[in-house]
Amino acid sequence: MIRFPTVLVIGAGASIPYGFPSGKSLRDTICSPSFINSMKNPYEKARAEDFIMSFRDSHINSIDAFLSRRPEHVEIGKLAIAKIISKAENPYVFRQPIADDWYSLLWNKIVSGIHSLEELNKNNIKIVTFNYDRSLEYFLHISIMNTFNVSYIAALEALKHIPIIHFYGHLGELTIGHSDRELPYKHDHDDDSLHRATQGIKIIPEVRDEEVPSKLISEWFIKARNIFFLGFGFDSLNINRLGLKEILESYYGKDAFPLQIMASTYGLTPSEASLAGASITGSFPDIWTNHNGTNTETLRHFAESFI
């Protein structure tokens, strides 16, 4: 099990191994002719054409960054996100070999030394995700069911012992589809379900500071001994809203435990990784360390902390 107080902060790069798009590939899909053709409603298709033309010609890489500047496109933009992300929520993916399968590494750490469902709450891990997909919850849910031979509902209840906060919302509660707030994990939803799913997605301008669960996340950071950033893009607005630098200035050094902040900086240059660390830690650069590897490689690289 994970004994030391640990917080995982995950971004889009953490879901890519499980079939979800990066920011760039999400943009490419939205701007493709096939996406326009997937719009069956004539009114939606007209709105989508205007949105896609503006998005394409803006040359902005991130759909979130674009919509933050063009609020008139937020509604159709969220529908585009819901359509593409939900299409990638394919339960059969987890039955195939996955190259950077850090979910499995995480799960095996969680159940190491644990022999009953009741013991799951001994784990000291919490997760903050900037992703809209529910792939991690789904993976953990089916893993709980099959590891401990428990029912769907019992596994959902046990999943609460691994707290996960979606910073900007998600496609819906991962339950059995009996209310408007729920969306089963599958890749063939009808249009009505996808429209409901957009209600759970929060684009940056829509999210007021008081709506962000910053108080709870702050409590997690204050008590943490280890913080891992996985698949994170180190966008300045997300970093500022996360507020870790301010928490370090207020609390670091007052706790009995040392703090380590570790990150996967796969694809970044040494200079970019250094800037990312400075943006996270501010006046405390000594607690930052990074590994230019995949998510799995990063967790294994810092194996002595990830226990």
Plain-language structure description:
- This protein has 307 residues and is α/β, with parallel strands linked by helices.
- It is 44% helix and 9% strand.
- It has 14 helices and six strands.
- The chain has a six-stranded parallel beta sheet, with helices on both faces.
- The model has no long low-confidence stretch (mean pLDDT 90).
Major pleated sheet = 6 strands, parallel
Apparent shape: globular
Question: Proportion of β residues?
Answer: 5-15%
Quaternary structure of the protein = single chain
Distance between the termini: 7 Å
As residue ranges, the low-confidence spans are: none
Q: Class by helix and strand content?
A: alpha/beta
Sequence of strands across the biggest β-sheet: 3-2-1-4-5-6
Nearest-integer average pLDDT: 90
Give the count of helical stretches.
14
Order of helices and strands: EHHHHHHEHHEHHEHHEHEH
- Quantity of strands, as a count: 6
Give the fraction of residues assigned to helices: 40-55%
Q: What does this entry show, briefly?
A:
This protein has 14 helices and 6 strands.
Which secondary structure elements does this structure contain, and how are they paired or packed?
Layout: E1 6-10, H1 23-30, H2 33-37, H3 42-58, H4 63-69, H5 74-88, H6 102-111, E2 125-129, H7 135-148, H8 152-159, E3 164-166, H9 191-197, H10 214-223, E4 226-230, H11 236-242, H12 244-251, E5 260-264, H13 270-281, E6 288-291, H14 295-301
Helix pairs in contact: 7-8
